[in-house]
């Protein structure tokens, strides 16, 4: 079956920065909905017309991937506002920021704790790959038609590098 809009593709990938450092690998296929919110537009565009077994190598500039880095999404907050078990790498949903945090911090962002100091915590609302050009090697493991329910939802819930609140020690981006 040829990849078209509103189909489901099973993908594996290796994601690298422009220096060749591996940023992420997905060894087992994960399904994504084309024509929804699961994949970056440039990836969807490149997949069109291919079939299972296809291999693609793409180079995405920041504006085609996760956007430019926005220093206005970095906030320094009082350490005392957060629980003692907070660690670097933890994520905090904007709507769950403790009372007393900067009111200018967008409440629809997901913040990563990038640094912890005795008196302050640094929260970064940028995607971890913002500002980075990426190279991705994709392999199409499967292609199938999407169900009406999947198309209606606009996602299979496995968005490409969708950052979710994570437990300590879970540093995967997918």
Overall pLDDT metric: 89
Give the CA-CA distance, first to last residue. 26 Å
**CATH A-level architecture of the largest domain:** Roll
Instruction: Give the strand tally.
Output: 8
Work out the strand percent. 35-45%
Structural category is mainly beta
Computed over alpha carbons, the radius of gyration is 18 Å
Helix content range of the residues, please?
A: under 10%
The CATH topology label of the largest domain is: Chitinase A, domain 3
The total number of structural domains is: 2
Q: Uncertain runs with pLDDT below 50, 5 residues or more?
A: 164-174
Please give the largest β-sheet: 4 strands, antiparallel
What is the overall number of helices?
A: 2
Characterise the protein shown here.
- About 5% of the residues lie in helices and about 35% in strands.
- It has 2 helices and 8 strands; from the N terminus they run E-E-H-E-E-E-E-E-E-H.
- The chain has helices at about 40-45, 150-155; strands spanning about 5-15, 20-35, 55-60, 75-80, 90-95, 110-115, 120-125, 135-145.
- It has a 4-stranded antiparallel β-sheet, covered by helices on one side. Strands 4-7-6-5 form a 4-stranded antiparallel β-sheet, with no helix packed on it.
- The radius of gyration is 18 Å and the shape is elongated.
- Residues about 165-174 have low confidence and may be disordered.
Summary keywords:
mainly beta, Chitinase A, domain 3, Thrombin, subunit H, 8 strands, 7% helix, disordered C terminus
Architecture blueprint of SSEs:
Elements: E1 7-17, E2 22-33, H1 41-47, E3 55-60, E4 74-78, E5 91-93, E6 110-116, E7 120-124, E8 134-145, H2 148-153
Antiparallel strand pairs: 1-2, 1-8, 3-8, 4-7, 5-6, 6-7
């Amino acid at each position: 079956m040829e990849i078209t809009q509103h189909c489901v593709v099973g993908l594996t990938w290796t994601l690298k920065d422009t220096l060749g450092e591996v940023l992420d690998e997905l060894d087992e296929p994960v399904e994504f909905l084309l024509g929804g919110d699961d994949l970056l537009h440039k990836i969807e565009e490149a997949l069109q017309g291919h079939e299972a077994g296809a291999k693609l190598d793409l180079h995405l500039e920041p504006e085609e991937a996760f956007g430019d880095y926005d220093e206005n999404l970095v906030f320094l907050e009082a350490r005392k506002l957060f629980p003692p078990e907070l660690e670097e790498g933890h994520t905090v949903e904007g709507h769950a920021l403790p009372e007393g945090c900067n009111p200018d911090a967008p409440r629809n962002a997901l913040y990563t704790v990038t640094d912890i100091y005795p008196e302050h915590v640094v929260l970064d609302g940028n995607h971890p790959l913002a500002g980075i050009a990426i190279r991705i090697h994709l392999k199409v493991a499967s292609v199938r038609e999407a169900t009406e329910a999947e198309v209606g939802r606009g996602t299979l819930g496995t968005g490409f590098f969708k950052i979710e609140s994570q437990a300590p020690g879970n540093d995967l981006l997918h």
